[in-house]
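Complex record, two chains
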Amino acid sequence: MKQKISDKIIGRLTLYHSILEDYAQKDIDIISSPQIAFLLNIDDSQVRKDLNCLKNTGKSRVGYLVKDLTRSIEKTLGISKTKNAVIIGAGNLGKALAKYDNFESYGLHVEALFDNDKKKIGSKIEGKNIYNISDLKERVSSDNIEIAILTVPWVSAQEVANIIAQTDIKYIWNFTPKVLKPIEGIHILNENLMGNLLQFTHKVMD
Amino acid sequence: MKQKISDKIIGRLTLYHSILEDYAQKDIDIISSPQIAFLLNIDDSQVRKDLNCLKNTGKSRVGYLVKDLTRSIEKTLGISKTKNAVIIGAGNLGKALAKYDNFESYGLHVEALFDNDKKKIGSKIEGKNIYNISDLKERVSSDNIEIAILTVPWVSAQEVANIIAQTDIKYIWNFTPKVLKPIEGIHILNENLMGNLLQFTHKVMD
């Protein structure tokens, strides 16, 4: 069942979910597939095809129930189960991600930040503590952390990845432009920002 | 010719490029496809297939010339032509992206930042001016800006997008979690961070 959902569909379902949250905030109860298609500039048939794979979407003649469709997407994407993460690197990007509201609504809970800068250690961002990187191993096991969001300067990325390798962390979400060496037992997701932009510009620019 | 390159290949070529930059920095002249495959935890045959589509890669019995392969990827991805961008929203994320070294090596030049906070306007980040958002239209046309990188709080995202719509900007790279309404004449790329993470976790988590 899980294997059947492609990357493209997951990407689109996440965007549908953002739109649904917007509708919910505006107290709109029903959404139609053409409305979603219009906002994302894609075909209505594509949206309907994606949503047809889901269960309990609250579909009726006039559209989908925002509440039901939201819950259905969350179930499909596995959002309902919270995953604990820490941000490593309390610079601008680390701070920005600590404040990124959207993570919690997708089941990603950022527990704390880590840094090696004594001026930052002991302070807080968005109510989250900034700890010394030397305490990482201990905190990871006591707080049941699975994911490290890596936002250190790229020159330190590999060194810090090696520190992460000593802990129980299972996933590194790498926001640095440095491609990390594979680490046994850890899955690495390279957040390839330039790749995303280039895929886009390649399609639309001349 | 351009249409033939898929999103997945563009994504991988960008990562190969990051690895090549790393090799160049370490003064290593030759790279083999198994070395690239190992770093990205993908099949060697995949790397070879991707690189076989490129021209002038400096391929020999022992591997690829780092310099030639870098240039070949840059040509294929259209990196050689610089695109001018501005960052709108000089908060943590805007500042982080202003400092993101990698943009320049991919032909993306960030000219300036814009904000509506009087405390920020007039100061600089990484040598780049922070201007008043009310000056956007004028600066966009005088500096030949094509891309707006949108990093304002999501509650202001649509309002700011409407301001961008009044300028000559052709592309919005939207880092807010808000899906923007379509704007005639402007291409919108939603940087779907949660979608990227979910695609990843869906594959590897149980």
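Note: Chain B touches chain A through 60 residues (CB under 8 Å).
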